[in-house]
Design brief:
This protein is an all-alpha fold and 89 residues long. The chain has one domain. The protein is built from three helices and no strands. The longest helix has 40 residues. The radius of gyration is 19 Å and the shape is elongated.
């Protein structure tokens, strides 16, 4: 196994991690931005106000995107294990 192959596997893994986590991170970012704008307009500075909507948004995102995320990671691991004999030599 050459250094190029190791770098290809690492690049694919990092890309897969970014792609899989993107929906939940975007939901958290958008909810946080909306709550921040709401706090600025209403002058409410309660810190727990930001966490509860984010948790609920991420939970809803996991319900919506969970199957896709699981399939994405499963496909990646299946590709890794199917090519395992190539990595040994």
């Amino acid at each position: 196994m050459t250094q190029g192959e190791v770098l290809d596997i690492a690049r694919d893994a990092i890309y897969n991690i970014i792609l899989t986590s993107a929906p939940l991170l975007l939901i958290s970012l958008i909810v946080g931005l909306i709550i921040s704008i709401f706090q600025t307009v209403t002058s409410i500075q309660e810190q727990t106000l930001t966490f509860v909507p984010k948790i609920l948004g991420v939970f809803a995102g996991m319900l919506l995107f969970g199957a896709w995320m699981l399939n994405n990671m499963t496909d990646f691991m299946t590709r890794l294990w199917s090519d395992f004999s190539l990595y040994i030599s």
